[in-house]
Amino acid sequence: MRCDLLVANSSAVATLRQEAGPQRGKRFGSLGLVENGAVAIRDGRIVEVGPTPRLRAKYDADEQVDAEGGLVTPGFVDPHTHLPFAGDRSFELKLKLSGKSYLDILKAGGGIRHTVRATRKASLTELTKLTRERARIMLEWGTTTAEAKSGYGLAWPHEKKQLLAIRNANARDVPELVPTFLGAHVIPNDAKGGRAGWMNQLTTRMIQAVSKERLAEFCDVFLDQGAYTRAEAKRILEAARASGLSLKLHADEFENRQGAELAAELGVTSCEHLLQVSNAGIKALSQSAAVAVLLPGVATLGFLESQAPARKLVDAGAAVAIGTDFNPNCPVLTMPTVLQWAVFELRLTPAEALVAATTNAAYALGRGDKVGLIEPGYGANVLVHHYATVDELAYWVGPNPVRHVILGGRVGTPA
In this structure, which topology does domain 2-74+372-412 adopt according to CATH? Predict the structure, then answer.
């Protein structure tokens, strides 16, 4: 039989093969290893996984990649980023070191509002270029699918500009970018009609325009201190669902506002951050289909006192994913770094962290049936690593572990 590409001679292929749905509970961390495995790819899709000798005998491949004894995994899926923004906030590092909190900086006109000013000044061409450059770095480090949020425009022309930058940046040489509308990031200072006027704009004109022009798949809300109330978040998300958008929710990052409970109630695709989630919220998520997206870089780089209670979420049976939360306050583009933080900060096992960065993250983007596994019929987004085991991926801090990135069946080598 013919195939376009055969990836062979691995230490093992981590298929992450499982029952339907994200891994959770006792199944979480199941790698589905095929020792000395190979992957046959045709027309951008995986056609078979099996031992190298058998697949080499079965397939006449146009191209072969020798894994040289490295581990083969699905491409990383980053379920939470803020890719399209302009400006720089490195000056805030000194403020954080002096004891200023994220909310202190925000109230003083920094933080999100500083980035809003820079993003509004940037042209669509500039935002597209920045988004593509960042996405290319992500790909070099193994990310083959990534979410990208707006939220630094906070006025319709600029929110639309961000979403168009995501659309324009999407191409064959970058990860698939999944757009999310986050007009409900914070209340803009210059909103006509104040808070009530802005809420009306969001829930009518803006959400409807996003849906009609197919600018985003998801709508997200920042439910927390200094941002939106629980009632406001519910109103926005219900309006988004009525317009045909899928739902996400920033929840319980700085204080508990029963965001996880609301996420479960509304049936969101993913509930994100969760540093201050309550026991009731953990139980609600464990009984829902929502994926809990944990972002360890935010606490690490933001000098926060605690991380999300990952082990409690896992032990309760919630579906857990991890992401970079790339943004001006957490300037990390590399999923291998986040995988390591998930081990050393969140106390996930290396196998759990890999699952959280691939198949569970794919479910957090509504793509669990398309990417995140090495399974016949799935998109051929595959990584060949320098290291032979998943433990080594977590252990060796610093170097890029990725030897080859295969995106949609096309082979690349990290720069």
Answer: Urease, subunit C; domain 1 (2.30.40)
